[in-house]
Amino acid sequence: MSVAAILLAAGRSTRMGANKLLEQLNGKPLVRHVADAALASKAHPVIVVTGHQNERVEAALEGLDLAFVYNPDFADGLSTSLKAGVAVLPAEVTAVIVLLGDMPLVTSEAMDAVIMAFAASPEKMAAVPVHKGEWGNPVLLSRSVFGEVATLQGDAGARKLLQGRVGDVLEVPVASDAVLIDLDTPEALAKARMQAIEV
pLDDT tens, 93-107? Predict the structure, then answer.
């Protein structure tokens, strides 16, 4: 089984007021935390979809073994970035794990838990980490639903494809609430910095 990763890093960060992906946490840009975790996981290759301030985002990821794809339609919503990433996946990829650039607390261990659970149940259309009954991120999508990604519009992401199809989704329990925490507001980022969370 070949599982790739798509790191969505194209958004405009309207709630943050600045490019949240470039904000620092523990001395590193948020997006680099996510990329480092992806590269330490079982996912390969790791594809980064850029858009807003793409040159600055790529500079923040300099030196890492990543593939980049630019999404010129990033202003039209997250779905366009997911589609751009899926479009360049190698033919041998059987599934993809979709990472969000503003979730720097998600570890490679959490990613691998989702990947390994799916490997044991490849008939499922997707796998999601679950903490205390709540679905989190990153979501893993089987190649069987890649075609449906093309139907997404606006800010709809991988989660949209799974609505009403819970029986086809593998739920993977995880101990950490990191899979639920996105740092997309100044308040959320300030809280993470105050807690000095190690990632």
Answer: 999 999 999 999 999
